[in-house]
Amino acid sequence: MNSGNESLRVLRLAYRALPTPFRRLDEPLDAAAGEFATQIGRDAKPLLAAHACDDYAIAATLNSAAMSDPDHGREDFTAGVAAAAGRAPDYLVNVYECVSWAMALRYAAHKARATGRARTLLLQVVDADLHGIQAAWRTRTYGFARFGITSLVLEVDADGVQITTGMAPVDRSMMKFGTMLRASLRDDPGRVLAVPFFPEPTRSAFRKTIPGLEATEDLHDRYGHCFGSDPWIALGRKRGGSAARSFLLGSLALSGYFGLARVGVADAVDCAVEEVA
Amino acid sequence: MNSWTRKLRLVASPFMAPTLADARMPPMRVADDFRAFDMAVHEDRHGGYATPVLLGYAQFYEVMARVATAARELALDAPVLFEVARPLGVPLPEALLGGDVMILDRAAHELQFWREHAARGVLLVRVRLLREALDYGDNTLELQLHSRQHGEDALARLVETSLAPPAWRPVETTPAGPPLPARVPLSLIPTDRP
């Protein structure tokens, strides 16, 4: 399989971690949200300079009113990103939690179909804890969380993009997610699965749902659970050590949503995934 | 492209009781975590906390799902754009996960794109969720239909079929519509809560 035949192609990938929590207890929310916006924009700027992006979207799992509520800072946040990036994001999507990136890609494919040509998308998967939500730092299912910024430049064709989304009851969502991953590869073998990171015993339970399939290494012990960034980190790390070019990415949200995308990565693509302790 | 808009204000709960979705809590959100999430979502810019209400988000999602379902009859080619400021709280209904719907935090740029590129049209719904459970009067829906295939206002039927008239009152209609009703004092608004 050659990435040149893929309808959804990664042109650039970069990930870096952010501190937990992002905001000091004595720091005003406005200031922390502004700093988060600046960091997002700084990561976007070189990618926007290097690529003629038709669309610029931000996807997040943990959101804050300081980012998305027009009465509580949305415009300031957007302006902060724009000031650092040189361009304002077109929109932010977070309602789909860890699957927000898949929904943004599906939407980009819709726009490509409407215009009858491939579109270049800058998509940033961003998460920072602006509120000290310790409940999100460690959970039984997902282990410890790590916040960060994944910046992606993707080319989205007008035809042929294959993104699968859906949902299952929370208590059966992992089983359903595994079933969908297996089904997607049944008629398209040869792809490497890039999937979320889980701690034990969740990891073993999940891996049992995808027996015999080539999947990226579970990096939870090093990276933790990075929300929607997990499969992109997995893809980036895998590319660093192999010739893999065709992937099936998947994310699973806390509320039971899942999203799968067939993605190609050309040989020359720069995947910069920050090393973490 | 013909355009119609309507802004509706919620003047009473359209539901008599919390929905099943309201009761579906992800396993992480046991009492303390639930409270932490709740406070986080509702922290204002000055460090204070408003009264948190997560019950009701599912009800709004249910309203959105009805609108999305009714919008299919319009046979538009753009996805229905929902602009929702505070989407945390409960799982989305499956009707809102399809490719014919996109939920965003800001939709102005995307609306412009679809007004230029949609062959048939686009529907935008701005959902304003506020915090006070009993202050339904400040919760609003703004609907904008931009269509190349409708010669008459198709929003009227959509509103009629998807939004319960006693609960949702039109306050602004363009290009023409009913006169603006007087705002109902909150003390006179029937509620489903004691």
Please characterize this protein's 3D structure.
The complex is a heterodimer of chains A (277) and B (194). In chain A, strands 1, 2, 3, 4, 7, 8, 9, 10 and 11 form a 9-stranded mixed beta sheet that branches. In chain A, strands 5-6 form a two-stranded antiparallel sheet. Chain A is an alpha/beta fold and 277 residues long. Chain A contains 9 helices and 11 strands. Chain A has helices at residues 29-50, 65-68, 74-85, 100-115, 134-137, 173-186, 202-207, 220-223, 230-241; strands spanning 8-18, 55-60, 91-93, 119-127, 138-139, 143-144, 147-156, 163-167, 192-194, 246-252, 257-273. By secondary structure, chain B is an alpha/beta fold. Chain B has 5 helices and 6 strands; from the N terminus they run βαααββαββαβ. Chain B has a 6-stranded mixed beta sheet with strand order 3-2-4-5-1-6, with helices on both faces. The N and C termini of chain B lie far apart (47 Å). Residues 14-19, 22-55, 131-135 and 177-194 of chain B have low confidence and may be disordered. The chains are: A alpha/beta (277), B alpha/beta (194). At the A-B interface, helix 2, strand 3, helix 4 and strand 8 of A face helix 2, strand 3 and helix 4 of B.
Summarize the structure.
The complex is a heterodimer of chains A (277) and B (194). Chain A has helices at 29-50, 65-68, 74-85, 100-115, 134-137, 173-186, 202-207, 220-223, 230-241; strands spanning 8-18, 55-60, 91-93, 119-127, 138-139, 143-144, 147-156, 163-167, 192-194, 246-252, 257-273. Chain A is α/β, with parallel strands linked by helices and 277 residues long.
Interface with most residues: A-B, 47 and 44 residues
Q: How are helices and strands ordered from N to C of chain B?
A: EHHHEEHEEHE
Rounded to the nearest angstrom, the distance between the terminal CA atoms of chain A is 34 Å
The arrangement of helices and strands of chain A along the chain is EHEHHEHEHEEEEHEHHHEE
Largest sheet of chain A: 9 strands, mixed
Helix content of chain B: 25-40%
Q: Beta-strand level of the residues of chain A, as a percent range? A: 25-35%
Structural class of chain A: alpha/beta
Mean pLDDT of chain A: 91
